[in-house]
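Suppose a colleague, Dr. K., hands you the sequence of a protein chain of 272 amino acids and asks what its three-dimensional shape might be. Before reaching for any lab equipment, you can write down a predicted structure in token form. Begin with the sequence itself:
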Amino acid sequence: MGIGTFVKQPVQPIASSKRRGRASFGDLVLVAVVIALGIFGLLMLYSAGTDFSLRTYKSASYIINKQMLWIGIGTLVAFIFSRIDYHFWRKFSVPLMGLTIVLLFAVLITNDVRNNAVRTFFGGSVQPSELAKLATIIYLSVWLYSKRENLKDIQLGLIPLAFILGVIGGLIVLQPDLSAAVTIFILGGLLFFLAGGELRQIVLFCIVALAAGWLVVQFSATGKARIGPYLAGLKDPLQSSDHVLWSLEAVYKGGWFGVGIGNHLPLYRLYF
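The predicted structure, expressed as tokens, is then:
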């Protein structure tokens, strides 16, 4: 028994070391991908935004400089957060969600209309719907973990989850910010799946979400404005939204590989 005990003792540290090694490699790959996407995004922004930056801000490098500043701030914040044990956020999940709901109500009350929507404070600098995405992830992670033994009970799992997402998503739809509301529901569905939700409940969740989306499209002017050009574009690309037309124009002018960094021309509507 003594020999067996002596032999077994090193096994766990070795296995644990291998797991840490795989996790560290995965982290490095993720960091490398994020850095690559960031550099690629900066190049594309510099190439496509120079003219706009010059005409709007009288400086060809204004937009790229501002973007680099925020990337630097974001990198610093991400590094600080990476040194914090994720269990630390558990105690802030409820206050953060409460603050988010208050801000989503407040943005509707202040009624600062920008681009036909009321989404921001302080001249467009603070957007509560963005905070709602982070708050949803943290709060639902804690809530679903606490309910992990009862997720198969629809009354204790799916129905409360639908209520939580309905409150947050509904307040965001009122702004309106449909893309953020859709993101909230997708995050909720993914977290419910990862927490071990039953397949039939996930299917029911998707059906209810699609039905809610259909109602928004039918009774919301913004929903109609979003889906209308999309459906028209399926029949005739020239009836699509400006974003689709500009994308077609970019491919038409530059082919699959573009015209090269800095060689773009201002995009206008393309007529064949």
